[in-house]
Structures are given as structure tokens and as C-alpha cells.
Design brief:
The chain is an alpha+beta fold. Helices cover 31% and strands 34% of the residues. The longest helix has 17 residues. 22% of the residues are buried.
Length: 176
């Protein structure tokens, strides 16, 4: 990783840990004994897992957010997950995340793309670092604006073996 990215990335990860309740982070250690067993995919095939699965889930989250599929979007998050969007607005819990997903089309959110830059995965926890870009409506009578930035997500495998987001922090960068 270039040294110019190390400090901002460390700051985002630190911010994610501050946003998450410390008892929640401490409880991750207690999940180490309850290792989920791999499940079979439909039709008896192996379950897709690893970095490719996390990248695919990020793309699915993008599509669901742009489509306004709030319940499907929120289902990828843990019950008390935290989502911090550009501008610092914090949303906690599936109900709040569902509302974010439902409202996205009304804000004019479109052309959302996420490029996963780094995926670090353990047996039960993972992090993804990504670059994102989207367009949203500007103020009434204004022009749409492009938003670019970084996104860091902390994931945990649930008891069924499915990856769920614990914290999802989006930070915007000025568009050149």
C-alpha cells in the first residue's frame, strides 16, 4: 500500500472502531469458538467464499441501494450495524439502514460503483477497503453532483456462515 494511503486508511479504521461500541468489538473474541460450518449452495454446489464473495456482496449492496431495495440492502448488515455516509451522518440498526436504502432513489442517487481495493479476511472477521463513486441530485434547481471517496467495511461471519457488515464508513474526497 502506498504510504500516502496508509495514514488516511488508518484514520478511517480508527473512526470505524470508535463508531462501533467497544463491547461489540471485544465480543468478537468470544465468537472464535463458535466457528460456523460451511453450507451448501442451492443445487448442492459449494458455497462461494473468500475475497471474491465479499467483492460480489459489495456490488450487490450497490445495486440494492440504487434500486431503493431497503429491506434487501439492510439484510446484509448485522442487527446493530453502523453506516456512516459522506458528511458524517450516522445510521445505526437495520431499521435505519432500511430507511437509507428506501430513500436513495428519492435523493437521486445513481451510477454508484464500488471498486474493492483490499480485502483482508480471517475465519470470522474481514475488512474491505474500496473506492466509490456516485451521482446524486444537487440542490433544487442545481446540477447533479458527483461524489467520490473511500469506503471501509468491517464484516463478521454469522452463525449460518453468511458475511454481514458490522460497520460501513464512507468518506468523500473532493472531486477534481
Amino acid at each position: 500500500m502506498p504510504s500516502s494511503l496508509a495514514l488516511p486508511l488508518a484514520f478511517v479504521l480508527l473512526a470505524a472502531l470508535v463508531v462501533i461500541d467497544l463491547p461489540l468489538v471485544a465480543s468478537c473474541a468470544g465468537h472464535a469458538e463458535a466457528r460456523p460450518t460451511p453450507s451448501a449452495a442451492p443445487f448442492g454446489g459449494p458455497r462461494v467464499d473468500g475475497p471474491a464473495a465479499l467483492r460480489a456482496t459489495l456490488r450487490r449492496l450497490d445495486r440494492q441501494l440504487v434500486a431503493g431495495a431497503g429491506p434487501a440492502f439492510a439484510a446484509h448488515y448485522e442487527a446493530e450495524a453502523v453506516l456512516v455516509l459522506p458528511g458524517g451522518r450516522r445510521h445505526v440498526g437495520r431499521e435505519a439502514l432500511e430507511a437509507v436504502g428506501n430513500a436513495a432513489p428519492f435523493r437521486g442517487l445513481r451510477d454508484l460503483s464500488t471498486e474493492a481495493l483490499d480485502v483482508t479476511q480471517g475465519a470470522l472477521e474481514a475488512t474491505t477497503s474500496a473506492r466509490f463513486r456516485y451521482v446524486e441530485n444537487g440542490p433544487p434547481g442545481g446540477v447533479p453532483r458527483e461524489v467520490r471517496g473511500r469506503r471501509t467495511s468491517v464484516w463478521r461471519r454469522d452463525a449460518t456462515g453468511r458475511w454481514r457488515v458490522v460497520a460501513d464508513v464512507w468518506t468523500s474526497a473532493p472531486t477534481r
